[in-house]
């Protein structure tokens, strides 16, 4: 399980690094971007295949992001710090739509594979209750992040993501003692979030001190 959790963390970190490069159009070689993209795609494909719970919650998050893009972020005016920074939508690249598509395809396969378990499980069992709580928390936090800080870079976004990083680290550390009552996929989602937030806080910190200015394409 530790290997899967590490993969989840690395996946989250790479996904956010890719997102930051694309959103702010950092001057990075196309081959480097492709390696990051392929690594990210490989990791989420492995995670979706291995863990049905991770696949389900991830699918929920991408659907929520699509809904937010449709009804909220697509209607906002971006703060054009560079000429490219015009799109505030979350699902603004094929890697995100492919992740949504692949997780949606894998869900019926996991359902079929685990059909007997699902038919005999108690949906009010403690593990299932923690699953519902994780689904609710993950959906709530991605909605708060999207509504409160849709912009790519801001001090408010940095502070919010520091707070969320502290929350997820505390949540995982606090529940390790009771890991028997938590599905492994819930921990994987948590580690994915820690990876996303860690790389995001690092990037936003570099932005705050203007250490990336020389790597951006400027408005002519």
Based on the model shown, name its key terms.
0% strand, 220 residues, mainly alpha, 8 helices
In angstroms, what separates the terminal alpha carbons?
Answer: 50 Å
Secondary-structure content class: mainly alpha
Shape designation: globular
Number of strands: 0
Helix/strand order:
HHHHHHHH
Average per-residue pLDDT, rounded, comes to 87
Radius of gyration: 18 Å
Strand content bin: under 5%
Query: How many structural domains can be distinguished in the coordinates?
Result: 1
User: pLDDT under 50 segments (min length 5)?
Assistant: 79-86
Helix content: over 70%
Tally of contiguous helical segments: 8
Sheet of most strands: none
Care to describe what's here?
- This protein has 220 residues and is an all-alpha fold.
- It has one domain (2-215).
- The chain has helices spanning 2-24, 30-50, 52-71, 94-113, 115-120, 126-148, 155-175, 184-208.
- It is globular.
- The N and C termini lie far apart (50 Å).
- Residues 79-86 have low confidence and may be disordered.
Blueprint of the fold:
Blueprint: H1 2-24, H2 30-50, H3 52-71, H4 94-113, H5 115-120, H6 126-148, H7 155-175, H8 184-208
Give a quick summary of the entry.
72% of the residues lie in helices and 0% in strands.
């Amino acid at each position: 399980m530790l290997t899967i959790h590490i993969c989840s963390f690395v996946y989250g970190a790479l996904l956010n690094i890719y997102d930051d490069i694309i959103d702010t159009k950092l001057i990075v070689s196309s081959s480097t971007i492709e390696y990051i993209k392929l690594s990210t795609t490989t990791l989420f494909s492995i995670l979706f295949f291995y863990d049905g719970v991770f696949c389900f919650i991830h699918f929920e998050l991408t659907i929520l992001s699509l809904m937010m893009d449709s009804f909220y972020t697509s209607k906002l005016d971006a703060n054009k710090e560079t000429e490219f920074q015009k799109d505030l939508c979350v699902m603004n690249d094929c890697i995100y739509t492919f992740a949504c598509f692949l997780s949606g395809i894998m869900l019926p396969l996991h359902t079929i594979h685990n059909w007997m378990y699902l038919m005999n499980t108690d949906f009010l069992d403690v593990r299932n209750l923690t699953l519902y709580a994780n689904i609710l928390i993950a959906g709530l936090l991605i909605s708060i992040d999207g509504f409160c800080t849709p912009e790519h870079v801001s001090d408010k976004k940095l502070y919010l993501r520091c707070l969320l990083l502290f929350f997820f680290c505390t949540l995982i550390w606090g529940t390790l003692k009771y890991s028997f009552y938590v599905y492994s996929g819930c921990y994987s989602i948590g580690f994915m979030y820690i990876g996303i937030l860690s790389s995001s806080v690092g990037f936003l910190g570099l932005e705050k001190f203007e250490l990336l200015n020389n790597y951006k394409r400027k408005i002519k």
